[in-house]
Write a structure and sequence with these properties.
Helix 5 links the parallel strand 3 and strand 4. The protein has one domain (about 5-205). The protein is globular and about 60 Å long. The strands form two sheets. A four-stranded parallel β-sheet has the order 2-1-3-4, with helices on one face. About 35% of the residues lie in helices and about 10% in strands. The protein starts with a helix and ends in a 31-residue tail after the last helix. The chain has helices at about 5-20, 40-55, 70-80, 100, 115-120, 145-155, 190-205; strands spanning about 60-65, 80-85, 105-110, 130, 165-170, 180-185. It is an alpha/beta fold.
């Protein structure tokens, strides 16, 4: 597995933000003494991604929102066709710009749970799936045990970005009507650094891919997903 994407990601995105060398990433180990996901959880995550690729049937995959950023890392590992939109959320889904970015033949994936984003985008029921959903028909992998716990843990990962929001932008002072723009800021340096370390863990992970063999699909006593403790982000 080539590390070229990982190197490019750090060179063009991580290092300019942190203003540090590779060695300084060791600071994150104080807040992240062990991998964020257990091997069983990583196996389940890979199985979810494989199911997403299968459900998409060759269509372009829209990764909706910052919560699913780790699947973009897996997509870069596999060279999959994706569009990652970290600013797409319940707060911003009403913005007109998404209409030109998301096409009718795209396939949207999100963590969960009610499907507000695809519904507001008026996507067909077969054009989107969730890791955990209120309606079982929209599960990307219905037989995955504890999928809701896994979805919640994924949503609690450290992220590179803060939640996006809509704000009014005025031109020519306040003499002209305001236009709405989407604003999304980067996370504070501590959380950003933790997200960078998690990126390394995800991209270089060697956990097995088959959730069935790992006992995560059918066995009633499969490993329970553990919610992470609150992370004390590095300053």
């Amino acid at each position: 597995m080539t590390r070229s994407w990982l190197q490019q990601h750090f060179s063009s995105f991580v290092y300019p933000r942190l203003g540090v060398s590779k060695a300084t990433l060791a600071i994150a180990s104080e807040a992240f003494p062990a991998p964020y996901f257990t091997p069983a959880e990583m196996t389940a995550i890979k199985e979810v991604w494989r199911a997403t690729l299968c459900a998409a049937r060759g269509r372009r995959i829209i990764l909706a929102g910052r919560d699913v950023w780790l699947f973009e890392v897996l997509a870069r590992r596999s060279g999959s066709k994706t569009v990652f939109l970290p600013a797409l959320s319940r707060n911003t889904v009403g913005h007109s710009s998404w209409r030109s970015l998301i096409k009718r033949d795209d396939f949207l994936f999100d963590t969960g749970f009610s499907g507000t984003i695809p519904q507001k985008l008026q996507l067909h029921n077969k054009a989107w799936r969730l890791l955990s959903a209120n309606s079982r028909s929209q599960y990307i992998l219905p037989n995955l045990l504890n999928n809701r716990d896994l979805a919640l843990k994924i949503e609690r990962t450290p992220k590179y970005w803060r939640s996006a929001c809509l704000r009014n932008k005025y031109s020519d002072g306040y003499n002209k009507p305001a236009i709405q723009i989407i604003q999304q800021d980067l996370s504070d340096l501590g959380e950003f650094l933790n997200a960078a370390q998690l990126t390394q863990q995800l991209y270089l992970d060697s956990s097995p891919r088959c959730a069935l063999r790992a006992g995560l699909l059918k066995h009633p006593k499969a490993t329970q997903f553990k919610m992470p403790p609150k992370v004390s982000y590095a300053n």
